[in-house]
Amino acid sequence: MKHLNGSNDYGDEEIHEIKTHYSSDFNESVIYEWKTFRTYLLTQKKTGKLISQREVCVKLVKDSMLKNIYPQLSLAAEIFLIAPISTAAVERDFFTMNRVLTKLRNRLIIEHLDQLIRISIEGEEVLNEEMKKEIINHWKNVKPRRLAV
Asked: pTM here?
């Protein structure tokens, strides 16, 4: 937002790209909303209240008045806020899921799969022997297993 200037075409190219890329979600009104919103941002800059792009997007999503005035820009802001910056985290999570969901564990319900993935990602790297025995004993007592531990 620090590059916001008084030019009449600031951000137009980006809005056209968003409209083209998400053509099923946006129509021509997103361009008109942007032109009006750009004026709002320029007045904010003149009063010294200019905020970051992320803060502008959060404001567009949370402020019900702005959301009603700029519905398409609010949708664009929601997309911007939830889109991952890179695919590394997603790829890492899928790799972890493939490690957890093996041929022996192919009947896990989603809840258990989620818990095992969270343990794999966030848990301790090495469990001490006492914790291992406690976990094994817990699962032995829950219900009979087909495989002996």
From this structure: 0.53
* Separation of alpha carbons 36 and 69, rounded Å: 10
How far apart are the C-alpha atoms of 33 and 69, rounded to whole Å?
8
Instruction: Report helix angle 29-46 to 12-21, nearest 10.
Output: 140
Q: What is the rounded CA–CA span in Å between residue 62 and residue 140?
A: 49
Q: What is the CA radius of gyration of the chain?
A: 25
pLDDT digit string (tens) for 9-60?
888 898 899 889 888 889 989 999 998 888 888 887 778 776 788 888 888 8
Position 73: which residue type? L
Name the nearest CA neighbour of 79 among 60, 63, 52: 60
> In this predicted model, what pLDDT tens digit does every residue of 112-134 receive, in sequence order?
888 888 888 877 666 778 888 88
Q: Are 34 and 73 a contacting pair, CB within 8 Å?
A: yes
Residue 113 CA, distance from chain mean position: 20
